[in-house]
Amino acid sequence: MRMNRDGSRRAADLLADATEEQIADWFYNYGELKQSRRMAGAIVKSRMAGIPVDTVGRLLDVVKPFIKPSQEKKELAQVFQALRIAVNDELGALRSMLEQALQVLRPGGRLVVITYHSLEDRMVKNFIRSGNVDGKVEKDFYGRIDTPFKAVNNKVIQPGEEEVARNPRSRSAKLRIA
User: Fold this and answer.
1) How many other C-beta atoms can be found within 10 angstroms of the C-beta atom of residue 48?
2) Cα distance between residue 43 and residue 72, in whole Å
């Protein structure tokens, strides 16, 4: 789960220390799981029973009852995605990078970002549109949007069929330029 093997935070540590609400928020916000509250409750219940959720097998034992068999592959991927994002603070790192880019880009410079899932893409799209990741648009006296960027491509750039055939991981990539 860790992008940096030297990092101290592991998924098992997060699941051992986090509150039920924090775990549910990770699953809901980062994994977009509808059963996030139930899964988080089951993890906390397992911890309280003295069974730590410290291996993939134990995590699967706890969350599988809340996953539809027809959606098992997709929803388990979402569980692991949520944990990976939380362990690495990926959205925090993206937010920091975007804010720093605003400080270091010269007038006329270009910001080019590739995102791989909707949470990242939403942040980048908001940042380009409004100058902040929350998407809060500020307007001047005349009602014009006050933003430090101008989108170069109005439509997001996605890989073509040929590229996806050569590189299947590219299928979810989206390129935005400002």
Assistant:
1) 8
2) 18
